[in-house]
């Protein structure tokens, strides 16, 4: 998986892929109290302060999207970027100790962009639903110009 993603510690937010077909993927990420997002919390923090940040949850899901697109063989060379999210429903909060399972489906590919959908769950609890996530691939030279 490391060869399929540009991210490295501390922004590599997937631990492994547990199932994959050309159009679907299940990837997992264990949320731990050692995450950098929890580094500066005081001892008096309550459980509400330990909710895994939504931005990191979406980033982790997005990394699963990138792996699926790469494994399916359709991802063009370049840097995948999140273009749009639609019909996002945040459910139960993710907390340290949870193992997140991202269930991702490839819905449509058109040139340098693709649409995915899916959900994230942990121990039977629905954490996140994503009706559609569109990603577009840009060349590195476009991003550095």
TrEMBL record:
Gene3D superfamilies: Hotdog Thioesterase (3.10.129.10)
Top-level taxon of the source organism: Bacteria
Protein name: Beta-hydroxyacyl-ACP dehydratase
Annotated organism of origin: Dactylosporangium roseum
Lineage, uppermost ranks: Bacteria, Bacillati, Actinomycetota, Actinomycetes, Micromonosporales
